[in-house]
Amino acid sequence: MPATTPVAQDFVPYATAAIDFHRALNIPTGPLVASRAELDSLHEHLVALHGLLDAHAQRTAPLLSAEGDHLKAARTRLWQATDHLHAAYHASPRPGSGEVPGPDACRARLPEGAPELTICRRHQQTARLVRRRATPADLHTPFTGLIRR
Prior knowledge:
single chain; 5 helices
């Protein structure tokens, strides 16, 4: 029997199932404040998904412009969600003290020390890619651009 090599589409359903399973097991019903560890993990997941959409958008756009436009719009929306998640992390209470840092804490470099800096480092690395691929208008408009048909 010939050996087959796994392709990316074989793994995405597993990632989706893992998130659904995590939600069902770890998120109880009723009010609950998301922990910083949970927000960090979600941020990491969205950054990885952003990278996947970016790769698809970059490869598809030269071949099929309408599909490429949709993928670029999805990538932009995902970055906006990632940016909000990063802000939510910094708005959540610190473990132990319960202190909520100010909104400019992330820009202050090493706002909370390691390992909390991991989310900021990841966010800033991805932001560099986002700035190369999108204009400020793309990132701040409620509509992500012209979609060809």
